[in-house]
Amino acid sequence: MFDNTGPTVPRVSADDVKSAVDTGKNFILLDVRTVGEYSRGKIAASINLPVDEVASKIGSVIPDKNAVIYVYCLSGSRSIYAVDTMIKLGYKQVYDMANGLLAWRVKGYPTV
Description:
Number of domains: 1
Shape: globular
CATH topology: Oxidized Rhodanese, domain 1
CATH superfamily: Rhodanese-like domain
Number of helices: 5
Order of helices and strands: EHEHEHEHEH
Structural class: alpha/beta
Radius of gyration: 13 Å
């Protein structure tokens, strides 16, 4: 039977990410939307690497494979694939932010 749910990856909630931001936890926030989407609004201190460039460029953008990395997109679908790719490349602490920027905005958390 065909399963179109995609890969299973470690996840965190928008609340978890907001708490990490507020407490100054050491982590990297990776936005995998397009450059155009990113320019129209993002979570402060995030870095942008479009999902279609993750496999080829993540090693130069984030060389530390032990860093804590929270990954988001708009709804959570692209970030799941980015996290899956990063895990396959050897990243140890990478997490998908469930439901992406939509969940962040629903909570009323700030964007820039």
